Amino acid sequence: MGTVNIIGAGLAGLSAAISLSELGIRCNLVSVQASERAQSVLAEGGINAAINAMDDGDDPAQHAADTLKAGVFLADESAVHGLAENAPVIVRQLRKCGVPFNSKGGMILQRPFGGQRKTRTVFSRSSTGKVVMTALIDKVRYYEANGLVRRYPHHELTRLSIKDGRCCGVSICDVYSGETTQFDGPVVLAFGGMNGLFPAMTTGTTANSGNAIAQVFSQGVALSNLEMIQFHPTTIGINDKRCLISEAARGEGGRLYILRDSRKWYFMEEKYPELKNLMPRDVVSREMFFVSHDKSCTGPVFLDMTGLSSETWRSKLPDLRSEIIEYTGMDPASESIPVAPGIHYFMGGIDVDERHRTNIEGLFAAGECCSQYHGANRLGGNSMLGAMYGGHVAACEAASVCDTGSEAERHCGVMQVQRASSRCIDGVRGILEGSMGIIREEGTLKSALEELDGMKAGLDPESIDFKRVVLAEAIVGSALLRRESRGAHYRSDYPDRDENLRCLSLAVFDKGEVGIEFKR
Ligand SMILES: Cc1cc2nc3c(=O)[nH]c(=O)nc-3n(C[C@H](O)[C@H](O)[C@H](O)COP(=O)(O)OP(=O)(O)OC[C@H]3O[C@@H](n4cnc5c(N)ncnc54)[C@H](O)[C@@H]3O)c2cc1C
Known about the structure:
Largest sheet: 6 strands, antiparallel
Number of strands: 25
Bound molecules: flavin-adenine dinucleotide
Helix content: 25-40%
Radius of gyration: 22 Å
Structural class: alpha+beta
């Protein structure tokens, strides 16, 4: 029996491990932190599936259509249809293994989420990620007891083994002892987003440091759509980090306003009468930016949840309310909360095809680390789904190339764990923050690239610092290349969409150079 190596044990990694176990194939499940601390646990609002429980005529075709439209037609159509068609099955399986979704009289309840014409988001109060992860962790423990899963928490990816263009294994390193182990076999990458590149601006965990994607990029793994970074409209700043107020708050009736000429202006409702406060996240974040820079407006944008009923607070958003009270000292049931957009999701990442294969044979990727399903902008509730479905698809593909003869594991001794220096982290962060905001333009992007080039001088090309700078170069270079505005990427110098650019931007590191072009 062969073994597949999974790097990352959030929703995508756990889903891959379960699918492999169900096929009777062993896997090593490696993660820098235990699953209980993966970012997936933070997911609040819910997971999308067109189960039509609210009887509003929903079906998977409409789910796919909304997903493609919100992604401004950059996502692979066939892959998105696969995602939407499989969503009801995934939700049913989760319920079967004990996930306590909110329900009434035995029927699952759904809530409205941004950018969707139907009430499609299945949820468990405002802690959906926690309960789904708990169920999947339990399931993986069962397979672990049966010898199908070996877990390696507190280990990080150090290097892929690539021979003659084929991935034939991976090295991992114990983050505490420095002990390095080499595994043979196909690899599924599921290491989440690049939050650690934007530590002060992100709602996600900085344990997803960006080091893993920087490493695999330096080894020739192609990345796509890196310029597509989602800003979530409603976040609050706490201790040098952004804390999310879930879209569920607006799904359940929360409203955005700013003071204009000293009166509350519910600008989303006036500008977008159909979906109002539930326009896709890119549109809401941009509008917040514009009204905050409007001379007739003063102060921050506020989220007004004071109209929500006590029943809604009690049964649907209890944890959200207590978190806001704990972090801000303000009770959202009685006063409006000042909010600002924060970086929430990376639509871009490792370039994969519909079957989650990368450009390297034997190497697959799933979840937030890969670029699939969300195009130029992700719908809320679609990423838990994408992580679970993608993990399953990647696992099936990896299983099909798993060499049943090989079972090698080698211990390679102790090495010094490479950490990015704070100088590099701060340098890259400052450059990215200055150039990759909600509004971008050529001058700042070009200066950012010059600064990054300057940072490389004197760095060892094998160091993680160098690789992080190169990754940042690819991100900024992708934003510079895309001379149009589409989804999360808004260029003030090219404010219109250009249908000739309805294609992925593809970044590759080859012979010491970052190359970026459109994949037509
Ligand atoms: C606050 C918040 C709320 C959200 N709410 C929702 C929601 O309601 N609905 C929704 O659909 N989505 C939501 N999302 C997004 C969603 O949670 C994530 O996109 C999704 O869970 C990602 O799953 P993943 O498995 O790809 O990554 P993660 O859960 O981030 O897991 C990554 C794994 O990789 C490991 N890892 C990282 N680096 C390394 C390394 N170098 N070596 C080895 N292992 C490594 C980590 O330890 C972890 O195990 C939310 C996100 C946030 C931050």
